[in-house]
Amino acid sequence: MEKENKYKKAAFGAGCFWGVEEAFRTTKGVISTAVGYMGGHTENPAYEDVCSGKTGHAETVEVTYDPSVVSYNKLLDVFWKVHDPTTLNRQGPDIGEQYRSIIFYYDEEQEKTARDSKDELQRSDLYNRDVVTEIVPANKFKFYKAEDYHQQYLKKRGQSSCRF
């Protein structure tokens, strides 16, 4: 039990959660990942509910990590690299509020780090559009774990990305 207390949580929405989950799952220092729904107003939403656009949820990856092995900054680096944070409610062909770019922070340190990271990305010359990523407190929302068939979806199929 003592070991568990040293782990921290992070949560990110960056489009379809299958590829996002795989990127975090394979990051050294990540203990576990789960895909689900967060940021909405409907209790216990199912995938079909979230896809309807009526729940307000984002497809989210909840990450449990060991901060002595991987920093929150490194997790943010993974987050920024796996999606386009300049597209509002869209990632590639996936369109809808559930695909928005969003960071759920669990404490003040995560909030500051996320805001600083977003500001740095905005100041860089990587994008010529505004970074639209939301940064919101995780304690305002409950994480609802997605259906079992979504968990480690790509790993179960022997794939490393959603690109075929």
Helix-strand pattern, N to C? EHEHEHEEEHEEH
**Annotated CATH topology:** Peptide Methionine Sulfoxide Reductase, Chain A
Helix content: 25-40%
Number of domains: 1
Structural class call reads alpha+beta
Number of strands: 8
Principal-axes geometry comes out as: globular
Q: End-to-end span in angstroms?
A: 41 Å
Protein model, in words:
The protein has 164 residues and is of the alpha+beta class. The protein has a single domain (4-153), classed as Peptide Methionine Sulfoxide Reductase, Chain A. Helices cover 27% and strands 24% of the residues. The protein is built from five helices and eight strands. The strands form two sheets. It has a six-stranded mixed sheet with strand order 7-6-1-3-2-8, with helices on one face. The chain has a two-stranded antiparallel sheet with strand order 4-5.
